[in-house]
DNA sequence: TCGAGAAAGTTTGACGTCCAAGGAGTTTTC
DNA sequence: GAAAACTCCTTGGACGTCAAACTTTCTCGA
């Protein structure tokens, strides 16, 4: 993860030189993409110690936050903003590892409930601690303004009707 | 892409309630993740009209920016910060579609050069225009401060030795 | 000069994401 | 009540990413 050039500055120079449009937007988008790339790598590294990926951690945390530890598959996808097929995939693996189990919905035969197991609860709490320890990949010598990040990205999310 | 709740605020509430650590960092990381998710969807949608994905567009643009339109596979991965196997994959598909062709390196038999074709140059320029038209997924009714995004994410990237 | 080690790409396998299609169950409608 | 319409989930295929193993080629030192 050590570079001898700034990918964003590099991109900016090239776009400028070729007269391509929306340079500032491009640089902002590239920054977000790169920051995400960095975060995901660090986060996945942290949760892998607990046999998880970030996706699985998110699903597990979501279930853990629930009253009775269960949620219909569809709700999981909705909350996590991922496709239903991705939920099937994620729950498959969590179930394989005994962190989650599928149950029939008592009233609606179409619905499948994903329920976190006791083991799942242990794992997700340990993983959350590991993530906290690295400040979710945002840690390091340079000071990061967490609140500013949230603020500056809010309009981006709002433009996509994110809330 | 329309939600009736704010995923970040939601996450913040849940973490708070369970006493989990680094809430502000979590919210910032979640914002970045979500912003990236939004951008990627919009960008991919824009370039798909030209038979590209964002990855392929990036590779194509990189080659287009080069003096002679060629770059060793390894250099492509280095610039794009992706694994060598991903480069192989991306170039395979670009080559299949006639946007790129592989050539032997004249001096080093180990090296494979990825070279953009004339068709590739046409496509990448059209795609760049499409991306500019949507401000790289950052467009919308709410005003987005491009420069602020770059500034606020700089320490995140610097913490990962990104430049 | 010759063999060990390094370097460059590709292949294979695991993961995550999406889309499209299909099966099963429920609700609506006539 | 039965057929049509809708909902929920899973399956299969395409794509992108990474890690590890492997092949080919080059380099360097004994």
Question: Could you explain how this protein is built, in words?
Answer:
The structure is a homodimer of 163-residue chains. The first copy, chain A, has a three-stranded antiparallel sheet with strand order 1-3-2. The model of chain A has no long low-confidence stretch (mean pLDDT 96). The radius of gyration of chain A is 19 Å and the shape is elongated. In chain A, helix 1 runs antiparallel to helix 2 and helix 3 crosses helix 6. Chain A is mostly helical and 163 residues long. Chain A is built from seven helices and three strands, in the order αααβααββαα. The interface between A and B is large, with 71 and 71 residues. Chain A binds a DNA duplex (30 and 30 nucleotides) through helix 5.
Task: Write the SSE topology.
The structure is a homodimer of 163-residue chains.
Chain A: H1 7-17, H2 23-48, H3 54-65, E1 70-72, H4 73-80, H5 84-96, E2 100-104, E3 112-116, H6 118-133, H7 146-159
Antiparallel strand pairs in A: 1-3, 2-3
Helix pairs in contact in A: 1-2, 3-5, 3-6, 4-5
Chain A binds a DNA duplex (30 and 30 nucleotides) through helix 5.
